[in-house]
Amino acid sequence: MWCRCVALRPLQQLAVTSLNTTGLLTRNLQREMSTLPRVYVTRQIPPEGLKILRESGQVQFELWDSDDIPVPRKELLQKVKGVDGLLCVLTEKIDAELLDAAGPNLKVLSTMSVGFDHLSLEELKKRSDQNIIGIRVGYTPEVLTDAVAELTVALLLTTSRRLIEATHEAKTGGWGTWRTLWLCGHELANSTVGILGLGRIGVAIAERLAPFKVKKFIYTDLEPRPELASVINAEYVSLDELAKQSDFLAVCCALTPETKEICNKDLFSKMKNTSIFINTSRGGVVNQEDLYEALSTGQIAGAGLDVTVPEPLPINHQLFTLKNCVILPHIASASYSTRNAMSALAANNLLCGLRGEAMIKELKL
Ligand SMILES: O=CC(=O)O
């Protein structure tokens, strides 16, 4: 399930004699190719990114040619040997073992994701310190902000207005007479919305929620972020206050050692029992046992999760048994235009890095 591709220059630029009548590459072209940097792409990424790589004339790349099955670890460790560049997605763990397997040629790592918790930054830094050139890392922030914010709002409303329960009732005979309190949920009007981790995505979510007549936005983070907060008129509060005051709590922070399971029994126990908890960041920021407890005992009213640990979440997981928990399969950035933009940015980051130029979006290690 892999294919070998050459980043072809436009055909007219190729010597006609480079291709023989059966389409096989002649020795000249093979020689030209063998000097191009080698890249491994761990997934069949959306077409815009692949087109950029193919037409760049700058790299030869091999591709794990499937989007349905991730490249097996053993295969990945084989394929990265000696590569100059690696384009990966968030399912690949880029750790010491993988970097050792790749070896000293690896100069550029480009991930088609805004999150980078699958990359061992410590190992990457260590190698950068040991090697004058170092490994440069590209990622894909901003291009997915709108899609993620849109999905977060959709998940929030689906959870708070109990849409999944409602459609289920409608099609399975539960829809009797119109009832005064049946399937009632919680509304955004006059509510306090809390954002845990205020960045571009948190701001974009708040901007979309504001027209629903939210009364107040609050947020917490490592420190106040006045510039971003001023865009949505949000007040900085402690984590405790965020839990206590929020009618809707949206988690937007990155997964780091500091945020691992930050949403736990302690946090849930301070939330109102009418509150809705939404997570579209990473599953690892939540202690799922504690969330189950909070949802099943009525400590909080509902949860909408786009991310879990593990992914996919096993279908017999206890969270799936709860009516007040809506679980999506990590689709926040899944719009055609956004996924194509992410693949194009990942490809361009990779090519810039291999040329020794500044990447469009580069992670500072
Ligand atoms: O979760 C998606 C991403 O990190 O891009």
Automatic annotation (TrEMBL):
Keywords: Oxidoreductase. PROSITE patterns: D_2_HYDROXYACID_DH_1 (PS00065), D_2_HYDROXYACID_DH_3 (PS00671). Gene3D superfamilies: NAD(P)-binding Rossmann-like Domain. One of its GO terms (cellular component) is cytosol. Residues 39-361 form the D-isomer specific 2-hydroxyacid dehydrogenase catalytic domain. InterPro entries: D-isomer_2-hydroxyacid_DH, D-isomer_2_OHA_DH_cat_dom, D-isomer_DH_CS, D-isomer_DH_CS1, D-isomer_DH_NAD-bd, NAD(P)-bd_dom_sf. It comes from Echeneis naucrates. Belongs to the D-isomer specific 2-hydroxyacid dehydrogenase family. The keyword Transcription regulation does not apply. Residues 153-332 form the D-isomer specific 2-hydroxyacid dehydrogenase NAD-binding domain. One of its GO terms (molecular function) is glyoxylate reductase (NADPH) activity. This is Glyoxylate reductase/hydroxypyruvate reductase.
